Amino acid sequence: MTARLRRTALALLFFGLFGVLEATTISCRNEEGKAVDWFIFYKLPKRQDKESRQTGLESLYLDSTTRSWRRSKQLMNTTKSVLGRTLRQLYEADASKNNNTAYLLYNDGVPTSVNYSRKYGHTKVPGEGYDYPPTGRRHGQTGICITFKFNQYEAIDSQLLVYNPNIYSCSIPAVFHQELVHMPQLCTGSSSSEIPGRHLTALQSAQGQKFLHFAKSDFFIDDIFAAWMAQRLKTHLLTETWQRKRQELPSNCSLPYHVYNVKAIKISGQSYFSSYQDHAKWCVSQKRTKNRWTCIGDLNRSPYQAFRSGGFICTQNQHIYHAFQGLVLYYEHCKETW
């Protein structure tokens, strides 16, 4: 059996996790350790009041086998969480020195570092074994895992070039070099390929779920939501990104398709939190628009983030759309101009 035939399925965790290529045993995993086509988590922010029993490690969970959010049974820092279960496959494959496994770990600042660069893709992974950093407890976070077949990785390879990832650990065995041009070069830091300002590609999960992936480099200096995504998807977008004081962009209605800042997120009943407490980065189509998209990524609406590389992966899956649309408590309308 050839190497190509053995590599029939794989898992990619966009925007905060890792990429790994392997045989059919590797995929996104739920809290029970079972393979799923994709999953999404929403790590909730830690409540600041003393009465709260929340630790900042609780999360909402949605995957290809469910229709709506549910509370995760496991805390994010445990090896039985969806991240722990999924990443375990990477650590085991690396320990076995299997030449049919490739991986890249990248971050804008390497683990344990306190220095971060706006030049690189804003993506995070613990260095050795699974752990969830204490600094990740205070604010909300989102992440998505998608299982892909190997035939999707030539497109993913090109998208990673646009991201300009700051790779701190990697292994791309020679068996992958024929199909994957950029990953081996990025791994060694010797890439001489010209990086485009932006690139859009269509991807399909192992079970056929369709996605669009927007990738921008630091050469594309603009708000990815208003200047590109909303206009390309032909939909008004409600965007939830970190609304850091004096570093946010206002809602934008200057182009045919508008972008509005979500200001508060509702969880259930009377429970909600502000965008100031949230490092999550996602957007969802406004209810009245015909094209219903949901996107998850790694860029904020901020003047400074216009200079950062990164991107978003988008889907028209209706369960994902309704799950995220249901989180919007209220959003900022555009200011009238005279």
TrEMBL record:
Q: Name one Pfam family in it.
A: DNase_II
Q: Which domain of life is it from?
A: Eukaryota
Q: Which UniProt keywords apply?
A: Endonuclease, Glycoprotein, Hydrolase, Lysosome, Nuclease, Signal
Its main subcellular localisation, reduced to a broad class, is other
GO BP term, pick one = apoptotic DNA fragmentation
Signal peptide residues are: 1-23
**Catalysed reaction, written as an equation:** Endonucleolytic cleavage to nucleoside 3'-phosphates and 3'-phosphooligonucleotide end-products
This entry carries the following GO cellular component terms, namely: lysosome
CDD domains in UniProt = PLDc_DNaseII_beta_2 (cd09192)
- List where in the cell it is found: Lysosome
Q: Give the family this protein belongs to, as stated in its UniProt record.
A: Belongs to the DNase II family.
Tell me, in a sentence or two, what this protein's role is. Hydrolyzes DNA under acidic conditions. Does not require divalent cations for activity. Participates in the degradation of nuclear DNA during lens cell differentiation.
Kindly provide the name given to this protein in its UniProt entry.
Deoxyribonuclease-2-beta
- Species, as recorded: Odobenus rosmarus divergens
Q: Taxonomic lineage per UniProt? A: Eukaryota, Metazoa, Chordata, Craniata, Vertebrata
Gene from which the chain derives: DNASE2B
